[in-house]
Design goal:
A hairpin with a 2-residue loop joins β3 and β4. This protein has three domains: about 45 residues; about 90 residues, no CATH class; about 110 residues, Tetratricopeptide repeat domain (Serine Threonine Protein Phosphatase 5, Tetratricopeptide repeat, Alpha Horseshoe), CATH 1.25.40.10. The longest helix has about 45 residues. The protein contains 13 helices and four strands. The protein has about 300 residues and is mainly α. The radius of gyration is 33 Å and the shape is elongated. α6 runs parallel beside α8.
Length: about 300
């Protein structure tokens, strides 16, 4: 019986403790809310002649969120180019880094804090001035932590620059390996690079070259097709289409497909590079006696 009594008292004590913790947290939240409301009221009274109803959005954001929210908003309004990416989704809450602000571009436009005309975005200097003054006032009251949007932005930009340098180095190492006929090394460098930029055509076609040299023709064909699909230069780069024709031939695809890509490559070639390689290119060995291929060579021999 005594053990049951102790167990019952223990359960009761646990629930009482949990209740007291909840009450304490609620009381702390209530005190924080009252403190914030008092700070907002004082700021409004002190700046009564400058504040308009449009500025209420700043105060609501402060009362409903963290200090970081209004600091991030102040940074974004001071750098309006950062807000332009929300032009196509004005009713979505603005996200800055890993923080979601409880405000949308549509709300900012409605309150005439920002103005959008012909996809150009500008910020009302008067409204921004109120927000800056409000943040400075809160800092003077010890309410703002040490978080700084601009500092975080610069840190992130620096990290991005370092990452870009690493990726460019991988790209260069891969190109050097390909040039030195170290095709397996080239594959490792290019594949590591493509983890970050999977649709970069300039690397996809070089990786395809490496696989071709390693006699992995199916992989080479898949990669060159992807390179062409994602290449902005596909309209002017004959080499992509010439390699595509080579890999089609090596994979024993239809002669018509090979001819189609060769015609595109010849058309895009400013000189005679493609034509001069046709009769000696070993990749076309299995179609060399095909009438269509023979006809193509004869056609451009006549043209020369």
């Amino acid at each position: 019986m005594q053990a049951v009594r102790i167990f019952t008292y223990g359960i009761a004590f646990f629930f009482v403790l949990a209740y007291l913790v909840t009450i304490s947290e609620k009381f702390h939240e209530w005190k924080l809310k009252k403190k914030r409301q008092a700070l907002v009221k004082t700021f409004k009274e002190y700046n009564e002649s400058k504040i308009s109803l449009r500025d209420e959005i700043f105060f609501r954001l402060y009362l409903s969120g963290s200090e970081r929210c209004i600091q991030d908003l102040e940074y974004l309004l001071s750098n309006p180019e950062k807000l332009r990416k929300y032009l196509s989704s004005k009713k979505d809450k603005i996200k800055f880094r890993n923080n979601t602000l409880n405000v949308t571009l549509f709300q900012l436009e409605t309150e005439e804090i920002v103005r959008i005309e012909d996809c150009a975005l500008s910020v009302c200097g008067e409204r921004l001035g109120i927000l800056v003054s409000f943040i400075e006032y809160l800092r003077s009251k010890g309410e703002m932590n040490n978080y700084d949007s601009a500092t975080e932005e610069c840190t992130k930009d620096f990290s991005d620059d370092v990452e870009a340098l690493k990726l460019n180095h991988l790209k260069l190492q891969g190109a050097m390996a390909l040039h030195e006929c170290s095709y397996a090394k080239g594959v490792s460098y290019f594949e590591e690079y493509l983890k970050a930029n999977p649709n970069d055509p300039s690397v996809l076609w070089k990786l395809a070259c490496c696989y071709k040299r390693l006699e992995q023709y199916a992989d080479a064909l898949e990669l060159i097709e992807k390179a062409i699909r994602y290449s902005d230069d596909a309209t002017s780069n004959y080499l992509l289409f010439y390699n595509y024709a080579c890999y089609l031939s090596l994979n024993k695809q239809s002669v018509d497909k090979v001819m189609e890509q060769l015609e595109i490559a010849i058309e895009k070639d400013d000189g005679t590079t493609v034509i001069s390689h046709l009769s000696t290119e070993s990749d076309f060995e299995n179609i060399r006696n095909e009438p269509a291929f023979v006809s193509l060579i004869e056609k451009y021999k006549v043209a020369q």
